[in-house]
Amino acid sequence: MYISTRGGKGRFTAAEAIKTGLAPDGGLLVPEKLPCLDGGFLTELVELDYHQRAARILKLFLDDYSAEEIDACLKAAYSAVKFDDKAIAPVVKLVGDISVLELWHGPTSAFKDMALQLLPQLLSLALKKTGEKAEIVILVATSGDTGKAALEGFSDVAQTKIVVFYPYQGVSAIQELQMVTQEGSNVAVVAVRGNFDDAQTGVKNIFNDSDYRADLEANGFKLSSANSINWGRLLPQIVYYFSSYADLVKGGHIMAGQKVNFVVPTGNFGNILAGYYAKLMGLPVNKLICAANNNNVLTDFLRTGIYNRERDFYKTLSPSMDILISSNLERLLYLVSDGDAAKVAGWMRELTNRGCYQVDEECLKAIQETFWSDWASDAATVDAISNVFKEYRYVMDPHTAVAWRVYENYRQTTGDATPTVVVSTASPFKFSASVLTAIAGPEAAGGKNDFAVLRELSAVTGWQVPLALAGLERKAIRHSLVGNKEEMLEIVKKTLK
Q1: Of 111, 432, 431, which is closest to residue 270 (Cα–Cα)?
Q2: What does the alpha-carbon distance between residue 458 and residue 469 come to, in Å, rounded to a whole number?
Q3: What is the number of alpha carbons within 13 Å of residue 295 lying toward its C-beta?
Q4: Which of 85, 401, 404, 452 has its CA 20 to 30 A from that of 272?
Q5: Distance CA 399, CA 320 (A)
Q6: Per-residue pLDDT tens for 10-22?
């Protein structure tokens, strides 16, 4: 059963939690208790493929889904048609004790596919299981990758509509093209004048507008979310931490039971939080290294216990991390405060009213036992892309490069030689101009359109452009609406009419 991080009344089944997205009191839904797995469970994963590993993990959390239903969802989500690597989330040994977990082999070339190919399958079943007759309206705020992955996953899914908001001029050119060319009779895409936090706050405000929600329900609609505030988005991400560990054991890179570090480029805190859930379940995790860019609100928080969103906002080369309000941090606070929902609700009120809050020493100590954080500037990001390509002929996108540079800082600071997995969250071709400039100099990308840059990056690196990105050149733009953040509710109303 699932309950709210803020203590609101009600216990929800997995299907209800996935259908609802956000708790009625504005909190996030979390499992009442976590499964504790032993070494035998981990050993069994080693010889399984990704689908089988995922089934083992998901069954622990989806009590009201049958084994057959989960298997069918997984086959639909992680098919060979959608993923260009049969391993789904392959682990690439790079150098020494450092490996890279590639999470971008899905249809939109970003890690969000790992969850957003599965969530629509789980949601469709949830609607049937709960006898839901209303049409579900998926509202999404995106800093770049979630939007396209959600659109791709929910396009033409029965009994759903999806509206995606993204920051105007705040995503890469390829990310924007992926969204505004999206086909589907049930999809809408809107650029918001402002940054990601403006879009995310706007979506939360719509969710928390009780009068509007009542009006929607009277007209046969219900709101839900495909952002990582939805447990159905976060759960699939737990799987690839276990899977990557099993691959390291299978490849002889670590011994079963040996601890590993994960370095995660982090914005909304969902990806790295999934790693924390995996650790609490029994995965041998030493440190979760939170890598930030200039918008380093998380680094400051993990070092001091003070979360302060009242700071300058920067547009960087790693736009999916250009975030100052990390929604999933609320779930971490719930976990480290031993489920003290009153504390969590108080901190969230302070964040809303004052723009900042400070956790107590006990919670900060619990956080720092596992988490370490640093940030990398755009210049450091470019250097990392260039250096890794020169040394290893490996091509990193800017977000992965942030993680690489932060890991270098971590190792230099701590001397920790624990085997480490760098979590790679996007194909370098999603940020082709930045990557090509870093590798070959500004003249290589200068004056070229986005698709010429894709081809040039492929020629320089020898890596193949993902088919879905190459095909964007032939797609028509279908969505061109730009609105102010204050207009988001009215836009949703007009879309549903």
Answers
A1: 111
A2: 12
A3: 25
A4: 85
A5: 8
A6: 999 999 999 988 8
Which active-site residues does the annotation give?
112
Q: Among 321, 319, 293, 302, which residue's Cα sits nearest to residue 363?
A: 302
Six-digit token pair at 444? 């290589």
- On the question of pLDDT at 266 being above 90, the answer is yes
Q: For 300, phi and psi rounded to 5 degrees?
A: -60, -40
pTM: 0.94
C-alpha 234/C-alpha 34 separation (Å) is 14
Contact 421, 101 (CB under 8 A): yes
Query: Cα(254)–Cα(225) distance, rounded to whole angstroms?
Result: 38
* Strand-pair category, 221-225 with 29-31: unpaired
CA distance 443 to 309: 37
Other residues' Cβ atoms within 10 Å of the Cβ of residue 379: 10
Task: Write down the pLDDT at residue 143.
Answer: 87
φ and ψ of 134, to 5 deg: -70, 160
Rounded distance between C-alpha atoms, residue 284 and residue 496, angstroms: 47
Q: Which of 100, 179, 93 is nearest to 427 (CA)?
A: 100
**Bridge partners, residue 140, by sequence:** 164
